[in-house]
Amino acid sequence: MAFASSINGVCLISHHGLRWRGDLPLFGSNRSKFRRFHRRIATGHRIKDIRAVIFKPEVDFKDPDWKMHFQEDFDRRFNLPHLRDILDVQPRPTTFSLKSRGPLHDGNGAPEGVWNGYVNDDDRALLKVIKFSSPHSAGAECIDPDCSWVEQWVHRAGPRKQIYYEPEEVKAGIVTCGGLCPGLNDVIRQIVFTLEKYGVTKIIGIPFGYRGFFEEALPEIPLSRQVVQNINLHGGSLLGVSRGGPDISDIVDSIQARGINMIFILGGNGTHAGANAIHNECRKRKMKVSVIGVPKTIDNDILLMDKTFGFDTAVEEAQRAINSAYIEAHSAYHGIGLVKLMGRSSGFIAMHASLSSGQIDICLIPEVPFTLEGPNGVLQHLEHLIKTKGNAVICVAEGAGQELLEKSNATDASGNVVLSDIGVHIQQQIKRHFKAIGIPADVKYIDPTYMIRACRANASDAILCTVLGQNAVHGAFAGFSGITTGICNTHYVYLPIPEVITSPRCVDPNSRMWHRCLTSTGQPDFH
Ligand SMILES: Nc1ncnc2c1ncn2[C@@H]1O[C@H](COP(=O)(O)OP(=O)(O)OP(=O)(O)O)[C@@H](O)[C@H]1O
Ligand SMILES: O=P(O)(O)OC[C@H]1O[C@](O)(CO)[C@@H](O)[C@@H]1O
Ligand SMILES: [Mg+2]
After folding, report:
1. Which of 175, 418, 476, 520 could form a disulfide with 410 if both were Cys (CB 3.0 to 4.6 A apart)?
2. Does residue 283 contact residue 497 with C-beta atoms inside 8 Å?
3. Which of 205, 224, 223, 218 is closest to 245 using CA atoms?
4. Span 241-254, mean pLDDT?
């Protein structure tokens, strides 16, 4: 059994999933579990298996008004940073309207007449929609010991009636950072379309991620409807991507020198940390600049969001690799197919690809530790599968089982740890095991890593990208900065960047989805 505890107000949850809230009374078996947990943390043992989640230590649950205090604090945290906070800026009526009659209106203001297409600043969407009756319910997320229902509202995304920029004064920049992701071009395209709809004419792309801000050999890329019209038909990014890059103050110098006052930053956790730092630096310098993030990651590891764009496509693309592994395994005598999928710290791609294919016998993800050897190990189960049904297919996420491998200590240009290859390791161990027990096994290893993210967005991602790209522009014109845009409970919202990057979003091993995956594969507990 796994457990978690509260340290300095952060509720930590072990990857085995039983949620322990810091406010639970520490008696009986709870107490010894709590102590063991602390010992493990103190010795640094398996520290990487622990995830931090939002927990508010200052809430006194004995106070009859604790919910109100919690909500006040929540509202404060999720309040969207605005240009008004630092500058004396006045709004003007929006230039965005879909009520225009001509082919293109001139950007001097929306046409007269009533149009109910605007979102009010006070509109909200509910962040959590399940009322868990017990902390022991599968996937329960509780705030207090009674697991009470507490409404948590976040800001609705979309066009506002009042805007804080004159379109002709806007110079908008778009930059794509980190690794590739299906849908980057779709988002770029929609940002350009929407900016033009407001009347913006100066739109540029920064080439090759944050790097493009300082490398003189990399000129700005002028963007317009004409330039981006068909870019969604291809994978990749029209602008190029990169990891690493200049420091924040150099980036802000560059933004200032270029006269950019809206910057749309597409990327994952690292990129968003950068975007937030850029926003803070712009604030410090009292610059009228809107910094808007659009979360991009096939890994789906951004907190609070239903999913990030590119994830669906990656899962769909992974089906080809899994199907090939399945065919190979089923066509060989004692065939074993092994597929490694992306997922540095989160196993969403592996879990969803396993679930959707229906062809996987063993799914291994970073959030759930496993052993290869021993009576409960993966190899023993494989042996059982070979003896009983003659073949097996395994899907492993790249970040799974890293504790079984020698660490390289290498990092990439962004400082991300370069992972050791779990796929190769498992392949070698399977071969070694079956040779040792004298049973033939034909192992076929498929690593489709870059194939699942270099492709064009599928239909569902294309729609998500469309909405996110458009909302990013609406957020900038509404005067927000330091925000990102996402989908929560099927509704599109704006969230302050820090709230979505405190840790990578992980698969909850106590969630129904992981349980469904286990039901589907039929795999036992490998621990
Ligand atoms: N904490 C940070 N503060 C400022 N900038 C950062 C930070 N972390 C990363 N960056 C910058 O953000 C960019 C992208 O980071 P990273 O390579 O980690 O990709 P990512 O955005 O997390 O996307 P992916 O999902 O592909 O990993 C890099 O240029 C990196 O220098
Ligand atoms: O080889 P690159 O470009 O660093 O990207 C690999 C990484 O990209 C990710 O998909 C995140 O975008 C990780 O799962 C993976 O480790
Ligand atoms: Mg990252």
Report:
1. 418
2. no
3. 218
4. 94
Query: Per DSSP, what are the bridge partners of residue 162?
Result: 93
DSSP assignment, residue 296? B
Q: Which among 237, 346, 349, 414 is the best mutation to test ligand 1's pocket, defined by most ligand atoms within 8 Å of the CB? A: 414
Q: Is the dihedral of CA 273, 275, 281, 286 positive or negative?
A: negative
The full set of domain ranges for the chain reads 5-56, 157-306+472-488, 311-452+510-521
Look up residue 428 and give its two tokens.
């070698």
Residue pLDDT, tens place only, 290-333: 999 999 999 999 999 999 999 999 999 999 999 999 999 999 99
Residue in 237, 296, 342 to alter for ligand 2 test, most ligand atoms within 8 A of Cβ: 342
Catalytic residue among 49, 299, 312, 361: 299
Nearest alpha carbon to residue 189 among 157, 229, 159: 229
- Annotation says 299 is catalytic: yes
Q: Count the neighbouring beta carbons within 10 Å of the beta carbon of residue 271.
A: 28
Least confident of 249-258, 373-382, 400-409, 439-448: 400-409
Ligand 2 pocket, residue 342 CB under 6 Å: yes
Does ligand 1 have an atom closer than 6 angstroms to the CB of 295? Answer: no
The per-residue pLDDT for 7 is: 31
Query: What interface predicted TM-score (ipTM) does this complex get?
Result: 0.98
Q: Which fold is adopted by the domain 157-306+472-488?
A: Rossmann fold (3.40.50)
Q: Give the Å distances, CA to CA, from 280 to 81, 275, 284.
A: 10, 9, 6
